[in-house]
Amino acid sequence: MDITAFQTFLAAAATGSFSGASQRVNASPSSVTERIKQLEHRLGTKLFIRDKRGCQLTPAGEKFMGPARQAVRAWEVARYEVSLPERFERSLSFGGQYFLWDRLLLGWLDDVREAAPDLALRVTAGAWARLNRDLAEGILDMIVVHDPIFRRDISAERLFEDQLILVTAGDPARWREDFVRVDWGRSLGLEIAARLGLRPESGLVLDLGQRSARWLITNGKSGYMPEYLVKPLLESGKLTTIENAPSFEFPAYVCWREDVDPDLAKEVVESLKRRSPAP
């Protein structure tokens, strides 16, 4: 079983091009081409149709996605678990959006380590797009994000309710002139712009998580931020809410792969709920 070839196949399928796959797996485009060619030879079928725009999965390639993900995940789990001390009987790869760690997930991490000393954890922070991708490709077992990608092989549950609110660190009367778009997902940016009649006049999009709030404060700008995240900044007066501005639902979800042990998934979800803000 050639795990490198499987990883290269999944990268090409995710990016839609061999050149994109080469960047993701840190290999030359010619190496990617050769790996896919050898994999197709061993399977006895074509996995991709290539043209000037990139590559598309064939029907056989679509069928191979599931087994390839399972193989890569099995390898990652095996490589990780064989290096663990004997006291760890279970393991979980977990990811959360950057801005959720300070106020939520760091405390949860302390809780779960104390409650489940037999559970080995590998945790990471990232942007929603990368976390969703890593979950789909089997690199992560469970994630907490505000913009999940719903799939048949991934379970999802609302963790807590939140909303995006318009805040400013400058003059509330000038919030339109000071507005900067903060990226919170695929569709919310378009919805916010349409509801408020805004144009991207600043030429800037922030995707910095909690650091976006710091930037707004430092530069006296306005933008949409999660209420849970900026509540302490509103209470301290560093940010001000723009009255009568529309708010937008922004719930957080916990998502996990269906091949995660059901008892472990339930245990972790319940521990996350205990740490989450009350509705």
UniProtKB/TrEMBL annotation:
Which UniProt keywords are given for this protein, alphabetically ordered? DNA-binding, Transcription, Transcription regulation
Coiled-coil spans are none
**Pfam families recorded for this chain?**
HTH_1, LysR_substrate
Q: Which PROSITE patterns match?
A: HTH_LYSR
Q: GO: which molecular function terms?
A: DNA-binding transcription factor activity; transcription cis-regulatory region binding
| Segments forming domain HTH lysR-type | 1-58
The protein here is known as: LysR family transcriptional regulator
Q: Which organism is it from?
A: Erythrobacter longus
